[in-house]
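Worked example

This section walks through a single chain of length 518. The input is the sequence exactly as stored; nothing has been trimmed or padded.
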Amino acid sequence: MANEWATFGADLHLELRGPRLRAGLMDALREAVRSGRLTAGTRLPSSRSLAADLGIARNTVADAYAELVAEGWLTARQGSGTRVARRTDPHRTETGRTRAGRTASGQAASARTAGGGRVAGSRFGGGGAAGGRVGGGGAAGVPGSAPPALPVLPRTPTPSYDLKAGTPDLASFPRAEWLKAYRRALADAPNEALGYGDTRGRAELRTVLAEYLARARGVHARPGRIVVCAGFVQGLALLGQVLRSRGVRDVAVESYGLGLHTGLLTGAGLGTPVLPFDERGTRVEELAGGEPGAVGAVLMTAAHQFPLGGALPPDRRTALVGWARSSGAFVLEDDYDGEFRFDRQPVGALQGLDPERVVYLGTASKSLAPGLRLAWMVLPEELVGEVVAAKGTDGGNALEQLALAEFIRSGAYDRHVRRVRLNYRRRRDQLVAAVAAHSPETRVSGIAAGLHAVLALPPGTEQATLRAAAWHGLAVQGVDQFRRPTVPPTLDGLVVGYATPPDSAWQGALEALMRVLP
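Given that input, the structure is written out below as tokens.
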């Protein structure tokens, strides 16, 4: 199943409910079309591909497709595949408040149903005052607030291998496909595309992003609510500015994460209180117990916590969105590597539970390359105008945006994600096997996802292991580098970016890592 999920066609996020698979699939597809998550003309995966993704029989999918074609929900043509049929949009007769409320309640029910144990199956090895061993892989590759520099041994060589987390294999960037998309986009671009343009970004990109995010991540998005940014950092800085202008005092953060992100928030004049964590992840219930109105937002990596690597359990996802809804606060969802789940279909985005209380932030930095400087926010209606005003006249690089729009529209993005997802899964499997064989006291922890993993080390061995890595020419980070200053240092581990090296250097990097483990 892991092999099949990693390799087949276009991604489609569906959550099946009930004991009857065909009926559950048909209900899920109807609801996705009815809610507007799958728009008219959207091409669905082949029956073989979707069956492999969902772990059901191909005939079940084919029969469901055929029934929905007969009902008028889908269309099927030779050579064109199965697509969503054009229908009257029921949303046009509803108010935004009614639509958001119904969508939020339906998605919350889906999240609870999907939770059964498969979603929540990750464990952190220890937490907070409880201590213990580390539990997971993580999410972005910019170092946080680092502790004092480690003593450097004499004759330390320049690193020969880079296993720092947060960067994809840049050698796998699809240059030929990207060049084709760029040429097509440039040839078709209207003259006005070369002007200053819309502050939110090119409409072509926002339109295809709305369709892709709905299909692959379960995000409820309209092009008018999407703002394209020059990277996640710009998006977070804009949100910090807007929240402070709205009177928000504090934005809560997770116990482990990037110091760069908290620095952006404090630079906007916001406090960053730290949420505690335990073996199940971040304890979001602490938000409800604080002073009312003190925390106006929370920054979360819910699908794959960075760097510890767990997925926020369904009950805590529901509680987090419920707190935001009842307190009028916002959840800032950093979905940095949501496409890269290796063992099953990825957990849907939090934003699907309540699009009016969750700000969804995505990026091309992990799926393609950080050098593109392309990211996006899907905003609640009430924040769109304020974020656009804060962004000013900066619409970003129009040609890069048009190229990405064409890259996604043509299916090249789905193909690339599938290809590199398979490669990263193979590397993670090799890492797990090598650690088990060479260092039984060390374990790879967290869910099977992302671009890096955490190796949980025996207590008290992290700093010595880092010094040994430097001596062997290996660049790697420790868990402690991502610890918030107020969090007790109870975890020892290495954050290993297995996606970072090119294929030609991966085996050498893995061997060097095995030489330095306890």
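What to look for: The chain has 15 helices and 18 strands.
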